[in-house]
Amino acid sequence: MFNRDRWDEILEALNANKFRTLLTAFGVFWGITILVLLLALTNGLRNGVTADFGDFATNSMFMWTQGTSKPYKGLPKGRYFNYKIDDVAAIKSEVSNLKYVSPRNQLGGFRGANNVVRGTKTGAFEIYGDYPEYIKQQPMDILQGRFLSYSDINEKRKICVIGTGVEKGLYDKGEEVLGTYIKINGVNFLVVGTFKMSNSQGDDEQDASTIYIPFTTFGQAFNRGESVGWMAITAVDGITITSIKQQIFDLMKSRHKVHPEDERAIGHFDLSEQFGRVNGLFSILSLVGYFVGALVLMSGIIGINNIMLIVVKERTKEIGVRRALGATPWMIKGQILQESLVLTILSGMLGVSFAALVIWIMNAILDNAGPVENFANPSVGMQVVFTALIILVVSGLLAGLIPANRATKMKPVDALRIE
After folding, report:
1. Distance between CA atoms of 31 and 351, rounded to whole angstroms?
2. Distance, C-alpha 249 to centroid of its chain
3. What single DSSP character describes residue 56?
4. Sign (positive/negative) of CA torsion 109, 115, 117, 123?
5. Which of 24, 54, 399, 412 could form a disulfide with 324 if both were Cys (CB 3.0 to 4.6 A apart)?
6. Looking at 220, 247, 270, which one is the last position of a domain?
7. Where is the MacB-like periplasmic core domain (predicted)?
């Protein structure tokens, strides 16, 4: 129940020595500010580093072939082999909990020799032979037209989808792109769409300088037949690709007569595993942030504890009079605890507000300065604010507990005798 007299007493006690109150409150203010800023900076680092994964499905892996390291069934060590399109069907049918299995082939390379021509303009671009589901593994924004379809796959259509870098390199500004032809290694392809990567934080030159064509058309036009360069494999939600990748490796080793214990023959990059390591690292950094912030906050709490002990000593006679007039020990204890809580929560919430202002300024600077490598959007969620509030309430109670107990242990007669 609201008690105006009690609140008047609290305000009077806090205003009795304003300078002392401000110095005491500053410890809690600074401690909670440091805590929130440390967590915001940790999230900024997390956002910056995880942005390197792009929007590619983080429950995915890439898989390719390498030379064997063990002889097997009469076949020599150091043998090279290729995946075939039949391997894709085998993985889909024999390994459960897979969402997408996308075979891929590549032609050319970033900053390689010129391999694409349009009129008098040429350029060196990455050419990928892909299936339509690849856009679900690597989300991209289709700016004009469309992406690949299964009709393109089945009919081996000579169509392509080009990145913004290809468009800038082969077309004049404002020139119509859809419906035009480009020549890739001497083969004409109709442009049916343009794209940019969904995670683009500027002009990512390598991604923008990419051309996608149907996988089957790639094999026919560039004499790759049924060969598969590598695969992008994504597990279903709730199941990590890390937990089932060994089944895929064992199946491929069996199909290509590779020794079961040959660890080199199949190369892979597990995005799920790498993403998990990054998240684990930043979870530890968040705990460190809480720990360091709590230590700084603790110094402020100790300051409040000490100042409340002084306040209790200064008000010894007042406490004696109240006890003599019938105030119960819990009424005295509640008064001291309430004063401690008010001082702690007010200074703490000011600290949270100040930290929010600093975070807003940091984000405004980042927006104006452009992307910073490995750092983006420092922020904290509402759960951090609620956690800070809980910490402040507990801290306020702890800070006032010892002074409150000391106040209630005074005997009214002894308290009244103190001058």
Report:
1. 8
2. 29
3. S
4. positive
5. 412
6. 270
7. 21-248
Q: Is the model's pLDDT at 104 over the cut of 50?
A: yes
Helices (H), 51-124: 85-94
Q: 217 with 360, same domain?
A: no
- Encoded tokens for 285: 């950094």
The residue out of 253, 270, 287 marking a domain boundary is 270
Together in a domain, 140 and 45: no
Residue 219 and residue 342 in one domain:
no
Mean pLDDT of the chain: 81
Q: Sort residue 156 into left (φ over 0), alpha (ψ -120 to 50) or beta.
A: left
φ, ψ for residue 233, nearest 5 deg: -120, 130
* Contact call for residues 115 and 121 (beta carbons, < 8 A): no
| 240 and 219 within one domain | yes
Contact between 400 and 307 under an 8 Å Cβ cutoff? The reply is no
Same domain, 256 and 132: yes
Tell me, yes or no, whether 29 and 107 share the same domain: no
- Write the pLDDT tens digit of every residue in 180-234: 999 999 899 999 999 987 654 444 555 678 999 999 999 999 988 889 999 999 9
Whether the predicted pLDDT of 252 surpasses 70: yes
pLDDT of 324 higher than 60 = yes
Tokens of 184: 């890739």
Q: Where are the beta strands (DSSP E) in 24-78?
A: 60-65
Q: What is each CA distance from 65 to 214, 227, 408, in whole angstroms?
A: 22, 12, 77
Helices (H), 66-214: 85-94, 134-137, 150-155, 164-170, 205-208
Q: Are 210 and 166 in contact (CB under 8 A)?
A: yes
The predicted-structure confidence for 255-280, as pLDDT tens digits, reads as follows 999 999 999 999 999 888 877 777 77
Range of the domain at 39: 4-53+277-417
DSSP code string of 256-298: TT--TT-SSSEEEEEHHHHHHHHHHHHHHHHHHHHHHHHHHHH
From the list 248, 237, 218, 235, the residue with the least C-alpha distance to 63 is 248
pLDDT, position 330: 67
Q: Do 322 and 213 fall within a single domain? A: no
Q: By C-alpha distance, which of 148, 129, 154 is closest to 195?
A: 148
How many domains does the chain divide into? Answer: 2
CA 93 – CA 82 distance, rounded (Å): 20
Two tokens, residue 293: 């912030």
pLDDT of residue 58: 75
The verdict on 213 and 327 lying in the same domain is no
